[in-house]
Amino acid sequence: MFKQSIWREQNALLYFSGTLLSKLGDKFYIIAIPWLIYELTQSAVSMGVMFLVQTLPFIFVSPIAGVLADRFPRRILLFVSALLQGTLAGVIPVLHILQVLHIWHIYVLGFFIACVGAIFSVVNSTVVPQLFKKEKLMKVNATHQFIDTSSVLFGSALAGILISKIGVYNVLLLDAFSFFPIAISILFLTFLTKETPSKIKSNSWEQLKAGADFLLKHHILGPFTLLILIVNIANGALISMLVYFSREKLFLSSEEVGWVYAGAATAQVAAIAFVNFLGDKGNPIRLMLINIMISAVGIITVALSWNWQTLLLAVAIQSAPVIMFNVLFKTMRQRLVPSHIFGRVNGLISMLGLGTLPLAGFLTGVLAEMIDIRIIFFVMGICSLLVTIRFLRLTKLRLIEQEDELTIPARLG
């Protein structure tokens, strides 16, 4: 699946090995935190609140992170944010050991972990073209997504087993240590261009406005960002309440929940292999829209599931197309956006793409106390499908790559 053109490069070995270890621990966090919240509160509202405080930073911090990425050395931003995430994640088990942990501690720490994570995420996706050449971007993005998905496959199943064997707090401690390998690997990466793309003389607001103007006027990225903003209402409902649905409606164990995530990841790996094999063939816009529609069908199928096997199938149908869409959309914007403004555009896309997630997650938690969660999932899936159909006109648009105003050989992601 992965040719020598990627794996013979030192940057690839360093970047992807560090990413693999950190992503594995990151998946521990995805299962451990909602599991811990449920153990402490048994409340859908509490889980919705946690989802809210973890997602809000990606809305408000992402644009700031984009400005930082275009203004300061990206290596330093990545290194510091990785270390901070690991340190903050380790505070939760420490507070438990000291017997002073309260639910508000988890909310506060989750908020700051998400703030630092938003910075890392934006800078990390911005810097990919500084480590790899343009013709390798699709393969690099597919490889990165493969690592992320493989960590779901093994990390989620392992997290479920470890929670039952060593407890949720020890799993969170393992997650904290997982951030340090990627921080170390960042120090040894070789940037093919300077780490700060250009000298920016305007103030932060003007810089942010320039990124917004570019995105608003772009004939492809603008409409796609709007579509993502809308359909993520349904995705936010599913992501925030999947563990609650698994325990409240299907009465699944931690191991079964882990297998649901891991099994769905198998379908995601197949999706990555397909998009990597497809490369630049065909119409990426049409393929992205088809993926969103299939994902909506998956959300509807989740509402109809009755055991862990059917839930696994439903989550696979929902998540595999999303993974393929992510690879295609990330590669598209890396090719369409000039480097000197890439950080700001990335930050704004991240903000708008996640804009509806926290509110959707919070409101779903509130509604789940009054309305059957199955009905919520079903209605959200139908609405997402209908909205995407309205955007099929985008298939008539053509991709025109932008040439960077700066003369740059290549860049990281």
TrEMBL record:
Q: Which Pfam families does its entry note?
A: MFS_3
Membrane association type: Multi-pass membrane protein
- Xref: InterPro entries: MFS_dom, MFS_trans_sf, TM_effector
Q: What residue stretches are annotated with the Major facilitator superfamily (MFS) profile domain?
A: 11-399
Bilayer-crossing regions: 12-38, 44-69, 76-98, 104-125, 146-166, 172-192, 224-246, 258-278, 285-304, 310-329, 341-367, 373-392
Entry annotated with the keyword Lipid metabolism: no
- Classify the main location: membrane
PROSITE patterns from the UniProt entry: MFS (PS50850)
Whether Amino-acid biosynthesis counts among this entry's keywords is no
Location comes to:
Cell membrane
Q: Which domain of life is it from?
A: Bacteria
Q: Which UniProt keywords apply?
A: Cell membrane, Membrane, Transmembrane, Transmembrane helix, Transport
Please state what the protein is called.
Enterobactin exporter EntS
Question: Gene name?
Answer: entS_7
